[in-house]
Amino acid sequence: MNNSGIKVRIFDMENGLREYDDIKIIRIISKDYNLLIMKDYLPIIGEIDGSVDIKNDSVNLSFKDIKAFYMNSDNIFNLMIKEG
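Request: output the structure for the sequence above.
Response:
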């Protein structure tokens, strides 16, 4: 694994599994909270009803109005999108 950032795995029924390495920032805006996840962020699991932005120097992904589950552990962020 690349140690300079976060590995992101995104799964949805439309696109299947996509993976991105060396992500610097993940921003989650849900109806009940806002999170900014960076490298070495504490392990966390949750549900999203809102949006997710995933960024580094070459990747700029934005998912708006989604319902999803996420888990962040050991600099690996998994996002499973239910609707959006």
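The chain has no helices and seven strands.
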